[in-house]
Amino acid sequence: MRTEAAVIRGTGREWEIAELDLDPPAPREVRVRMLVAGLCHSDEHLRHLPAGTLPVRYPMVGGHEGAGVVEEVGAGVTRVRPGDHVVCSSVPACGTCRRCGQGRQNLCELGGNGLDGALYTPAGGYRFHAGGQDFGGMSYLGTFAQYAVVAEASLVPVGPDIPFEAAALIGCSVLTGWGTVVRAAEVRPDETVVIYGIGGSGVHAVQGARWAGARHIVAVDPVASRRDTAEELGATHTAADAEQAHRIVAQLTAGRLADHCVVLVGTVTPEVVSRAVDVIGRGGTVTLAGIGDPTENTVQLNGTLLALRHKRLQGALFGGVNTLTDVPLIVDLYRRGEIQLDSLVSGRYRLADISEGYRRLHGGHGVRHLIVHEHDPA
Fold first, then answer.
1. Axis crossing angle, helix 242-252 with helix 270-279, rounded to the nearest 10
2. Whole-prediction pTM value?
3. Is-contact 152 77, C-beta < 8 A?
4. Cα separation of 70 and 83, whole Å?
5. What is the pLDDT of residues 172-197, one digit of tens each?
6. Angle at 93 between CA 58 and CA 170, to 5 degrees
7. b/e per residue, 34-60, with b = 16+ CB within 10 A?
8. Which of 245, 264, 242 is nearest to 319 (CA)?
9. Are strands 280-288 and 312-315 parallel, antiparallel or unpaired?
10. Which end of the chain is least crowded, N or C, by CB within 10 Å?
């Protein structure tokens, strides 16, 4: 079959709308009719990465946040069936490998090559094609396509009562932000948390900190409207920059400083990391979940002070979540009104208007922007 998709053909290139051939699903694969896709900074990194710094293979179908309906399944598929509503997970979870068995599904052994886009199923290879070229799918997905063939391990079924717009956000930004606080940082009641970056994932970090019972939640972002959103979602205090945040935290804690700092800014720099370590007190933890320039060493710290104050710096992939259990948990929290998703959507765009959506996102207009796919009537 044929499908329209937003593709990137190389670093420094613009998003391009292309018509691609799509193969049928092979064993353990599923064809999904995508309904909604999220615009995330990670896809935009494909446009700006210096050549050769990360193993990105072009051309690539963008999109790693999405939700849709299962249309066809290949042999051996057991997780979903035609007609199911599904969340696309930006990190696969087979549920049976060593890491999944340890309760670390964010490190599933099927993952690790999402910037190539070749499927990790028994058949392997690519399902998108055009002009004699194979197109990978971002994070093994490619949700910027109207239709995609993906591995069943990249899908989690959800109830038909969950709106596709909400479901699309769960598969990356919600799990990353909420999980980084709740799972990776393991924030506990009565603790003080500083969150750098109140974007697509940072807003959910605020909600995660509130759900975890943090006493003080300090949201840091230069965009005033995002600080306002953070307050609406449970932040107790906000700051426009790290220096202001440090003053607030010092006052709130009588100089003890924060227990946690979670870094979810769009581009991590050495200054951001240094400020994050400075704002935590003795025994505090900094959790890095944002992405920086891969050609730059963004961690440049005084190891002696780190040791003497028993501070810890850690990375977090996909929030440290277990997809197969945390997606149903998030869905349940959404149903009960304990996590907000609908109110965070600031813009909806046709696939052809993807560049406009990203311009508005980069300009600080709102928090979450979506592609709403258009399909010919059945």
1. 10
2. 0.93
3. yes
4. 5
5. 999 999 999 999 999 999 999 999 99
6. 80
7. bbbbbbbbbbbbbeebeeeeeebebbb
8. 264
9. parallel
10. C
Least Cα distance to 36 among 159, 145, 155, 157 occurs for: 145
Q: Which element (helix H / strand E) includes 244?
A: helix 242-252
Question: How far apart are the C-alpha atoms of 237 and 197, rounded to whole Å?
Answer: 14
Take residue 361 and report the two structure tokens written for it.
Answer: 């996102």
Structure-token pair, residue 254: 């009588």
- Block residue for tokens 């990391």: 273
Structure tokens at 56: 């990105």
Number of alpha helices (DSSP H) and beta strands (DSSP E) in the chain: 11, 18
For 254-284, how does the pLDDT look when each residue is reduced to its tens digit (9 = 90+)? 999 999 999 999 889 999 999 999 999 999 9
pLDDT at 194: 98
Structure tokens at 359: 């311009």
- Which DSSP helix (H) or strand (E) runs through 315? strand 312-315
